[in-house]
UniProtKB/TrEMBL annotation:
<keyword id="KW-0282">Flagellum</keyword>
<feature type="coiled-coil region">
    <location>
        <begin position="285"/>
        <end position="352"/>
    </location>
</feature>
<comment type="similarity">
    <text>Belongs to the RIB43A family.</text>
</comment>
<dbReference type="InterPro" id="IPR008805">
    <property type="entry name" value="RIB43A"/>
</dbReference>
<keyword id="KW-0175">Coiled coil</keyword>
<keyword id="KW-0969">Cilium</keyword>
<keyword id="KW-0966">Cell projection</keyword>
<protein>
    <recommendedName>
        <fullName>RIB43A-like with coiled-coils protein 2</fullName>
    </recommendedName>
</protein>
<dbReference type="Pfam" id="PF05914">
    <property type="entry name" value="RIB43A"/>
</dbReference>
<comment type="subunit">
    <text>Microtubule inner protein component of sperm flagellar doublet microtubules.</text>
</comment>
<keyword id="KW-0963">Cytoplasm</keyword>
<keyword id="KW-0206">Cytoskeleton</keyword>
Amino acid sequence: MYKLDTPLDRKEAAAIERRRNREQQRQGRIFNAKVRQIGIDVQGLETQVDEKKQHEQREREREEAFAQDAVRYDKIATLMETRQQADKRALNMYENEFRSLHQQPEARREWDLYDPDALKKDKPARVHDDDPRCTISSLQKFDGEDLNAKARRRLQEEQLREWSLQQQREKDAAKWGQKEADRLYDLKRRELDQRACELAQAEEACRRAINMATADYNNALAREAEERARLRRQQEQDDNATEVSNAIFSDMLTENPAVAQSAFGSHRVVPDRWKGMTPEQQEEVRRIQALQAEEQRRKREAEKREKDEWDRQRALQARTGVLIEREVERVNRDLQRKQAEENLRLAREQKAHKEFLEKELYTNPPTAAYFMQFNTSSR
């Protein structure tokens, strides 16, 4: 019915064989304690050595290339430095030649300051008194050192004499002017004093007239004020008499009960006119107060009965609570007793189970066959 002798695929068989060979090789490596502990990978070491040699060869080639570049750069730098020095020498030569041709000392702007023959070429410091070169800062001409000193001195003496005479004349004229001014001042002062006296007399007369007019005016005002006061007192007396009469015959003093009636209803009164309640009203108030007192008494009795009922209920609830607490305590004691019995039963069972494990179940020691089943595969 089933074909059990079907040949395997060659590829699959080859793969199985390869896996089997790798497994055997792996077991040989793993189960060989010497190879596993102190063995080395020779092929890996050789590969590392080859890589190191190749790296060193590349480094040597790189260093040689750098050295060649350095030599080339040094040669280029030397050539450039030589060329730069030659250019500098040529530039210095051209500069010296230009200076010798176009920058002589005589052509400089400051040559006159340090010319060795300057004193020989220069003019005297002062030729005559009006020499335009002799300015104030030249310090070549001072007062009294001019060439016309004698004539100048005579002229100055004559001028000084004239000035003295002129000062004397001016002083005499000033004295005469001061005397004339003093005389005029005295005359003016006398005139002002005279006018002041006249003005004082006129002012005194005017003041007396003003005082008299003021006194007359004040007297008139006093009489007028006195008349107004008399009329005011008379009016006040009349007003007081009228007020007393009105008060005597008013509804307030006569205690008219009709005045206290309010316009908003017969049950309302005017507070500022009300003189008190009538006997009927007072009797009605007493009756209402008696009714209120009776109502208060009944209310207190009802409250007392309610309070007694609440006290009875609280006492009943307290007794019920005590009974409930006793019942709860009894139930708790029963539960604790049952729990203790259950714990004892569990302890006995655990002890029996432990004895079973130690005396019956764990009494079979392992044999060599048990250990031989380990380490039979590399997986």
